[in-house]
Design a protein that fits this description.
There is one protein chain. A four-stranded mixed β-sheet has the order 2-1-3-12, with helices on both faces. Strands 8-9-7-10 form a four-stranded mixed β-sheet. The protein contains 19 helices and 14 strands. The two termini are 28 Å apart. By secondary structure, it is an alpha/beta fold. Helices cover 44% and strands 11% of the residues.
């Protein structure tokens, strides 16, 4: 059962770059001894670069903003470089019983494509295996935001770059906070007090939760000092060696979640079964629940929280340092032995250039990976954007850290929702860390 759950967690990781549609794609797979190419190169004399991702190229009449934005940048590369980018996709029937991560790991290890959209755990795994090209010499890296370099560097090599920075925050109904004269919370204590007031005034469940994203509270509290203090690298090295324990960092966050469960601020049974946005979203939009958690793009998407009938604000999660954005980084990576290596590097340099990123971010209204393009966000996202502009955030995925965090912590939070004690959760976290440290020394 745990193995199946781990496979399920992997499918949520690509939500940032590929958009909400990826959530529906990640349950697909059929078992094969080796993966098979999906598209034959029928024009042998043409210059072709192959990309593997979760979705097909946009078709006329199909409204898919994220894929359309990617298509715009790919078209720019094709025109400038005189080549064609072929889409090889996870949506094919060949993969109906495999997760997206299963497939990308197979394809990269077998050198089947030129570049790939990878989730954080795959970036970490493949980077450690030496299967990904060091992208540090690309022209586009000169203007990368520091958060990308921090998250996607493995053994000193920058192995993946996203087109956008996926940021998670708290989506709050400001009207409901104003109704009860509540300030938006900064610390865990202030957050709990807001929940108490809502509960005392008849709000049945102050926090709408699902089985994927409650770990955001844990990361904000665990790593606020680590990523915003002066000893970041030393603390990471201590965690990698096993000298420090993740459980010491994360225990307060798990105790915080347990208190919310005990006081009825979260419906643990419902959260354990809810899919992201589909479960808790209707109550939030109907103003029955004042607080949910989601990623940046959900504020722009009409299928998520794009058109509320109230004033919505998106803020950081409560921490000792105030409101804290939580960032898991995905990215595009080139296979270390890609068949069309030089052309692929040129393609990435175009689609990740400031010019392309401006078009991409204007289309998707997201934070681009380059620091040279300003974010034109809706008013609801300004609090979260201001924090990111100040370089205030925590990473929920970091390829420089030996233990994969985003998926593992998600699973352990599910154990908590299902009745495990905080001590039992911390013991499991310790075992996972010990295994990661042992692997790192082999």
């Amino acid at each position: 059962m745990e193995k199946a759950m781990k496979r399920g967690v992997k499918r949520i990781l690509a939500v940032g770059l590929a958009g909400i549609a990826v959530l529906a794609m990640a349950s697909c797979s059929t078992k094969h001894d080796l993966p098979q190419n999906l598209i034959a190169d029928d024009e042998a004399n043409s210059k072709i670069v192959n990309v593997f991702g979760p979705m097909e190229k946009s078709k006329p009449g199909v409204d898919n903003v994220s894929r359309t934005a990617f298509d715009i940048t790919v078209s720019m590369a094709e025109e400038k470089l005189g080549l064609r980018v072929e889409y090889r996709t996870y949506t094919a029937e060949n993969y109906q019983e495999k997760t997206y991560d299963d497939v990308t790991l197979d394809r990269v290890r077998n050198n089947m494509d030129d570049f790939y959209l990878l989730n954080p755990d795959c970036i970490q795994t493949l980077g450690e295996e030496g299967k990904l090209l060091d992208l540090s010499d690309l022209e586009c890296t000169k203007n990368l935001r520091d958060v990308v370099k921090a998250a996607n560097t493995v053994n000193g090599k920058l192995v993946a770059i996203p087109q956008e920075i996926v940021v998670y925050g708290l989506f709050v109904n400001k009207d409901m906070f104003d109704r009860y004269h509540l300030e938006l919370p900064n610390t865990p204590e202030e957050f709990m007090e807001c929940c108490r007031v809502f509960k005392d005034n008849g709000v049945e469940t102050p926090v709408g939760a699902n089985r994927w994203w409650l770990e955001t509270f844990v990361f904000a509290q665990a790593f606020a000092d680590l990523y915003n203090g002066e000893n970041t690298q030393a603390e990471i090295e201590a965690l990698n060696s096993g000298e420090s324990k993740y459980s010491d960092y994360m225990r307060p966050g798990f105790e915080f979640l347990q208190e919310m469960i005990d006081k009825g601020y979260i419906d643990a049974k419902a959260a354990y079964t809810y899919e992201a946005i589909e479960g808790e979203g209707p109550d939030f939009m109907a103003q029955k629940t004042p607080i949910v958690m989601a990623y940046w793009a959900a504020a722009n998407a009409d299928t998520a929280y794009g058109k509320p009938d109230f004033e919505m604000q998106v803020i950081g999660f409560p921490s000792s340092r105030g409101q804290m954005p939580v960032v898991p980084i995905t990215g595009y990576a080139i296979g270390a032995e890609a068949e069309h290596l030089e052309d692929t590097k040129k393609v990435l340099d175009v689609i990740l250039s400031d010019e392309a990123m401006k078009l991409y971010s204007e289309t998707n209204r997201v934070i681009p990976s380059t620091k040279n393009v300003e974010v034109d966000c809706i008013p609801a996202l300004e609090p979260l954007n201001n924090k990111m502009e100040e370089n205030v955030y925590v990473l929920a995925s970091n390829a420089n850290m030996k233990m994969e965090q985003w998926g593992n912590v998600c699973l352990i939070v599910r154990d908590l929702l299902n009745g495990a004690t905080v001590d039992e959760c911390m013991e499991k976290l310790d075992r996972i860390q010990e295994e990661a440290v042992r692997k790192g020394t082999e």
